[in-house]
Amino acid sequence: MQIEEVQNQRDYLIYSKEVHDYSPAVGRLLDLSASYIYDAEKAYQAGKNAIWCRASAWEVPLLYSLDTIPAVFSEMGRLSDREAMLLAEDYYQFPVETCSMVKCTVGQWHKRRGTSINRILGTSSACEPYNMAYEIMKTQGYDVYCIESIYRAPGVDGKRLEQLKEFFVEQIYGVTEWLTGSRHIDAEKLKTEILRKNRLIDKIKKILDLRIRNPFYIRSLPTILLLNIGLSTYFGKPGEFEETVDLLITELETAPVRPEDLQRVIPLVWGYGTGQEFGIYDAVDQAGGALLGLRGVPLKKYREDISPVEALVHYIYDNHAAGAGTYMRELIEQQIDKINARGLLLYGYIGCSFSSVDKELFREHFHNKGIPSISLEGSYQVGPPTGQVLTRIKAFIEMLS
Questions:
Q1: For 202-225, how does the pLDDT look when each residue is reduced to its tens digit (9 = 90+)?
Q2: Predicted TM-score (pTM) of this structure
Q3: Could you give the CA distance from residue 123 to residue 224 in angstroms, rounded to a whole number?
Q4: For residue 237, how many other CB atoms are within 10 A of its CB?
Q5: 6-22: per-residue pLDDT in tens?
Q6: Residues 162-180 pLDDT 10s
Q7: Which of 124, 264, 380, 395 is the most buried (most CB within 10 A)?
Q8: Cα(174)–Cα(179) distance, integer angstroms
Q9: Alpha carbons 372 and 92: distance in angstroms, whole number
Q10: Phi/psi of residue 114, each to 5°?
């Protein structure tokens, strides 16, 4: 398949698999991604527990310990088309300017009513348009449960921090009771999942380090899939995902490094959200760029010296990525320094005012530090990105070269 033949996100996976025909590991990774939502739905229809949820880290170890498959609802975006967007706009009266990701998700939930996974775990503090979507889905027969995640601001400690921890422990047991009808958590199973997560984080860090010395072995799209949904949820198949990660490490350790690649590569940091416009990643590759640093990767490990439930709580309140965008700048700076980045890409969805504000703050901050950046906006539904977006990316990377 040629890049000009690509029409949708599944085509991009096929195209990327052909580009990486030398790598069995990348092929397996792309297959896991392509089958993720379909297989989660099939498992649910076969009687296994599965829920729609966000890929926001702490829930996933808990869900797997409760024998529940996490089906990340944002991944339905790649199954979407204009019809899904119109369902949200026309049937549910979502304003046209509403975030395209939310509208795609609502349209897909609408089409799946009564035939697929019918439980949704939401996070009320994440996104106001999604909060509206959760309330609407309740009226459509979905069993929706929303948790509250309270961020720990800098300087919050002592008694106030203990109150926050107690609050979040109650949230964890609330989710457990909603899923199982009981507040019982198997500590050993949860510990096993936390150890799995920490083990995989170490392996992914190794892959990222190996990519710096061999930047084009794994291109941008598989890297995003590996780090974003892969590390967060294991594509619903923890064992197969870890085997794929191990195989990828072996390949990277033994693959020859071409000196000309190290000379021509333009190291880049992806500094904001990752979308479904897979053509953007291909445009980066074609222009000689390599996404070697990513701000949103869940690489913070869980504590193993305390009880598993406490480890989930500490993951939230010790996580420096939480809270205002000004604190996230440090994570981007760390990525820039680590890979000696020559540029920063900031991507957000059309209609997401939150990301628009953050991106402008980041752009100004890094401009003042002498780091060139480009701010991009795209849509969530499937299909190639606009020619204007691709032209801007190519021009930006050419400028850096």
A1: 999 999 999 999 999 999 889 989
A2: 0.89
A3: 23
A4: 18
A5: 777 788 888 899 999 99
A6: 998 999 999 999 999 999 9
A7: 380
A8: 9
A9: 41
A10: 80, -5
> From edge to edge, which strands make up the β-sheet containing 266-270?
289-294, 266-270, 343-349, 373-378
Residue 370 backbone class (left: φ over 0; alpha: ψ -120 to 50; beta: rest): left
- List the one residue out of 266, 275, 194, 291 whose CA is nearest residue 229: 275
What 153-156 contacts at long range (C-beta under 8 Å, 24+ apart), as own/partner pairs, is 153/323, 154/323, 154/327
List pLDDT tens digits, range 353-383.
666 667 777 777 888 888 998 887 766 555 6
> Of all residues in the chain, what percent are helix, strand and coil, respectively (each to 5)?
60, 10, 30
Q: Using DSSP, state whether 328 is helix, strand or coil.
A: helix
Give the integer Cα–Cα distance in Å for 290 and 295. Answer: 14
Range name among 107-111, 118-122, 172-176, 370-374 with the lowest pLDDT average: 370-374
The token pair that represents 277 in the structure block:
């416009």
Full domain range(s) for residue 162: 1-400
Identify whether the C-beta of residue 197 lies closer than 8 Å to the C-beta of residue 311. Answer: no
- Residues 238-290 have pLDDT tens digits of 999 999 999 999 999 999 988 888 888 899 988 766 666 677 888 888 888 89
Rounded Cα gap, residues 165 and 150, in angstroms: 9
What is the spatial distance between Cα 303 and Cα 227, in angstroms, rounded to a whole number?
21
Contact 221, 281 (CB under 8 A): yes
The DSSP string of 212-255 is HHSTTSS-HHHHHHIIIIIHHHGGG-HHHHHHHHHHHHHHHHHS
Length of the chain in residues, anyone? 401
DSSP structure string for 333-394: HHHHHHHT-SEEEEEEETT-HHHHHHHHHHHHHHHHTT--EEEEEE-SSSSPPPHHHHHHHH
Give the count of beta carbons closer than 10 Å to the beta carbon of residue 43: 17
Query: What own/partner pairs with CB < 8 Å and gap ≥ 24 does 187-194 have?
Result: 187/307, 187/308, 187/309, 189/65, 190/61, 190/62, 190/65, 190/308, 190/309, 190/312, 191/304, 191/308, 192/65, 193/60, 193/61, 193/62, 193/64, 193/65, 194/61, 194/302, 194/304, 194/308, 194/311, 194/312
Residue 185 has a CB neighbour count (10 Å cut-off) of 20
Residues near 342 by beta carbon (within 8 Å), at least 6 away in sequence:
266, 267, 268, 372, 400
The angle that helices 24-45 and 9-19 make with each other, rounded to 10 degrees, is: 150
* Tokens describing residue 224: 């995003």
